[in-house]
Amino acid sequence: MAVRYHDHLPNKPLVEAILEVKWGSPDKPDPAYPMIVGRLYEKVRDEYPFVQDLELAQFPPGIAVHVPRHRFRKAENEWPLVQIGPGVAALNDTEQYTWQDFRRRATGFFPKVKEAHPRPDELELTSLKLQYVDALEVDYLAADVQAFLRDKLHISVVLPDSLFERQPVAKRAAHAVVELAFPLSSPAGRVELSVRTGHKEGNPALILQTSVWSTGADANTGWGSFGDWLDAAHSVIRHWFFALIEGDLERQFLGQ
User: Which residues of 108-145 are buried (b: 16+ CB within 10 A; e: fewer)?
Assistant: First the structure.
């Protein structure tokens, strides 16, 4: 049976969509920082005029390379937003996300990052990553989290019964972390899946993360044909998400 895709989920579980580009050495700041901050703001201020300096902005660039230090927003506390720091740029969106709008913003913002860099031809990427974070509300303290993974997300985590025989160990898991990564040919890199127990707005939830990550030469190839890389990465993540939620969760998110 083919996986069904939906352009709109009335009850979508999305917490955040993140597109992040990193360049340069993780232990050495980009010498173009902080010059690039002002130059980039001049290019995006019409769409993101509100400047938010994060706490790290007051520290030398060598502290926490590849961590954003400045956010540009449409208005205070509004999403989506774009971020910049030593060797890193990102686009983040949340509940109002749509793929069409996110793609438009991504293909508008990231070329401006390259234009703002004083030596754009020397910009060597270390990673290019598209990630989606979803929260599935389930009281895993009361429910059987392994049964939820199996029945709702089609992920089986099976342990041998011998682990619990004559042992002072409860058979129902109180916490769970599942992380898997698979090689990917289009775009070149890997696709990653992570499910872990956590919270959403103070309530117990399973946090589902799906991401496509290209590094090194693969990231630079993707940067050279950014729109194609983005479309291919999104296509993989979309397929994985709808394959995972097929059935009960799909109907829940559709409001059926």
Answer: ebbebbbebbeeeeebebbbbbbbbbbbbebebeeeeb
Q: Which residues in the chain show pLDDT less than 50?
A: none
- What is the gyration radius of the CA atoms in the chain, in angstroms? 20
User: Which ranges of the chain does DSSP label H, i.e. alpha helix?
Assistant: 35-44, 99-116, 145-152, 216-224, 226-245, 248-254
CA distance 152 to 5: 17
| DSSP, res 4 | P
pLDDT digits (tens, 9 = 90+) for 64-91: 899 999 999 999 999 999 999 999 999 9
φ/ψ (deg, to 5) at 110: -70, -35
Q: Token match 């729109």: residue?
A: 227
Q: Is 79 exposed, middle or buried (0-12, 13-18, 19+ CB in 10 A)?
A: middle
Closest C-alpha to 148, from 131, 167, 173: 173
Task: Tell me, rounded to whole angstroms, the distance of Cα 253 from its chain centroid.
Answer: 20
Q: Quick one: pLDDT at residue 77?
A: 94
What pLDDT, on the 0 to 100 scale, is given for residue 1?
Answer: 65
Residue 204 and residue 139 in contact, taking contact as beta carbons nearer than 8 Å: yes
Tokens read off for 248: 């009960």
52 vs 56: CA distance, rounded Å: 11
Bridge-partner residues for 16, per DSSP?
Answer: 133
The pair of three-digit structure tokens given for residue 233, joined into one six-digit string: 């990465």
pLDDT in tens, 16-30: 999 999 999 888 888
Q: CA 68 to CA 108: how far, in whole Å?
A: 19
How far apart (Å, rounded) are the C-alpha atoms in residues 174 and 27?
A: 37
CA distance linking residue 201 with residue 18, whole number of Å: 19
pTM of the model: 0.95
